[in-house]
Write a structure and sequence with these properties.
It contains eight helices and two strands; from the N terminus they run αααββααααα. With 281 residues, the chain is mostly helical.
């Protein structure tokens, strides 16, 4: 292997590692956001919550199977409101998500943004530096990089290839292909918005399951508690703004990377045409 081939191989490997890092960061952010959303739903909107708010088996004997089943469901629901992160030795309740989760999502989306920027630079510099190389070298670079992409397809169609021929009919991509990546990237934003909405609703609208009589908390809050409530809501609001910005930048860098690859593909196609004309000249 000569020095140029070694350089191409090393640059391709670096680009593929950058793509892999972004994919891993995106996967972690998606899992964390989904976990937060499921926890919020379970804490504030789950059907099990109604067993606490409405004691349907009031007056039932303690040995009644329905009473026993409801008690077990309530116990399981209450236990699920405490989140345990065993590797870090952390324990916090669903009511603390308004502070803990947005901060964690800011950190995760920051890593995702840095990975997207690194991917964009690694892939773009690779293709800029070898855009005038031999056709064989360009083919290797294009297919090695494009085959490593998962969420951002380069083709103009989602049609399956079922023969030894390129698709002749170009149909528009479906909604999932066009907006699926955007949904994954902005899932942390949806999670923070859900946290903020649920936290506000839990105070001003939803009955409190752990208070006698299950009152709406807003009707029983004094002035210091109201001030504390609004100050606490500033945390998810501020963190959510940062999450929106970081997710938007991640999307921007990712789509810029795809555009560079498409430009490289056009240069490669022009190079193939020139080689074909030269062969038959």
């Amino acid at each position: 292997m000569d020095s140029e081939q070694l350089l191409v191989t090393m640059r391709i490997d670096s680009a593929k590692e950058a793509i892999t890092r972004l994919r891993l960061a995106l996967l972690v952010a998606v899992i964390a956001s989904s976990t937060v959303m499921l926890t919020v739903w379970n804490g504030y909107f789950s059907w099990y919550r109604f067993f606490v708010l409405e004691d349907q088996c009031r007056g039932c004997p303690l040995t009644d199977p329905t009473k026993i089943a409801q008690d077990q469901l309530v116990k399981a629901w209450v236990d699920s409101l405490i989140i345990n992160i065993s590797p870090l030795g952390m324990h916090f309740g669903v009511s603390d998500l308004a502070f803990v989760a947005p901060v964690a999502l800011v950190l995760l989306t920051s890593v995702m943004f840095f990975c997207a920027r690194r991917e964009n630079h690694a892939v773009s510099y690779l293709m800029i530096d070898f855009a005038k190389s031999q056709t064989a070298t360009m083919l290797v670079i294009f297919h090695a990089v494009s085959a490593h992409l998962v969420f951002l397809p380069l083709g103009a169609t989602d049609d399956a290839i079922g023969s030894l021929a390129y698709n002749k009919v170009s149909r528009p991509r479906g909604f999932i292909s066009k907006r699926g990546f955007d949904l994954l990237v902005f899932l942390p934003v949806i999670a923070v918005a859900m946290i903020l909405a649920a936290d506000i609703l839990s105070v001003v609208y939803l009955p409190a399951p752990f208070r006698l009589g299950h009152p709406v908390l807003w009707n029983n809050m004094d002035r210091p508690e109201v001030v504390q409530f609004f100050l606490m809501e500033l945390v998810p609001l501020a963190m959510g703004t940062l999450v929106v910005r970081l997710c938007w930048l991640t999307r921007k860098f990712s789509y810029a990377t795809v555009q560079v690859i498409r430009d490289f593909q056009r240069v490669l196609s022009d190079s193939d045409d020139r080689d074909s004309r030269s062969a038959f000249a």
